[in-house]
Amino acid sequence: MKRNLLVCLTSMIMLMSCNDKDKMLTSLKGYNDAMESKGYHFGDQLVLPKEITDHAETITISFGDKETSGLKIDPNFFALGDNKVTFVIKTKNGETLNQDATINVFTKALEKNIGYEIVSEYPHDPNNFIEGFLLEGTTVYESDGLAGSSQLIKYTLGETKPLVTEKQANNIFSEGCAIVGDKVYQLTYQNRLGFVYDKNTFKRLSEFPLPNALAEGWGLTYDGKNLVATDGSNHLYFLDVNDPSKVVKTVSVAGNKEIYDKLNELEYHNGFIYSNVWFKPVVLKINPNTGEVVGKFDFTEIAEKNMEGNEEHVLNGIAFKGDNMLVTGKNWSKIFEVAIKN
Ligand SMILES: [Ca+2]
């Protein structure tokens, strides 16, 4: 009888503990899911539900090799954008609970709407499914995509006939390009390769494997120190220019209310990185040190006129001509020069 009572009591305690554990995990998941879309700002305190705090001895958030039990969005610990963390809770019963979560940190300041005025228009070859776009002097360097029609070309702004053309093999899908010194670097979409060319002749000098961290090759630019690439996510990947298969730094891009996903064609200019968002007629102005979106351009009107009802023909080209921005898109027949107003 005594033994039975003991078994019964033990089972009851275990059942209670199990219930508490489930409640805590469910409650934590509910809290984290709600906060993921709402996001935090630096300095915010995490206010976890009572179901958790009442039964927890300690609560720790771990993030790679770092951990904090401060339950505060401390900039020494969290980065702007998405932080993939694990909550580790030691319960008063001596159990350890783990749960993965994403802690989104948004910027304090709102993104500024940047005004512009179209000051000039130039022709663009509408056959070109543009991926990479930049200007040096009066010469446009353009990388065009799609398997079977991928190429690297250069032409004088105002004309469309290429001065030099380098066609890719049929299985290659070209993506973003950037100039570093006397070389052009070019990414490919899913071939997991990048190419290096002589800037003048487009003679292929070498190739490099796409870093493992990048899901695909999308946009590319050069900030004077590193190549900077996108892969369709919310990240800017800074690559070692001497070995572009090495990622030296990754920055997550966020604004006041959102993480910006599908970052695409890039252009570095005067300390900022400009990126378009795939399938949106928007160009972001990003602080490359923090990932903060400080401003954005709305090119809806230009994009609608030039897409001509084809949803694939999105805005996909940013370059700079002095302090004016050049924008174009996939298969557009025009390049627009815009003066930036603020
Ligand atoms: Ca560009």
TrEMBL record:
PANTHER family documented for this protein: GLUTAMINYL-PEPTIDE CYCLOTRANSFERASE
Protein name from the UniProt record: Glutaminyl-peptide cyclotransferase
InterPro entries, alphabetized: QCT, Quino_amine_DH_bsu, WD40/YVTN_repeat-like_dom_sf
Source species, domain of life: Bacteria
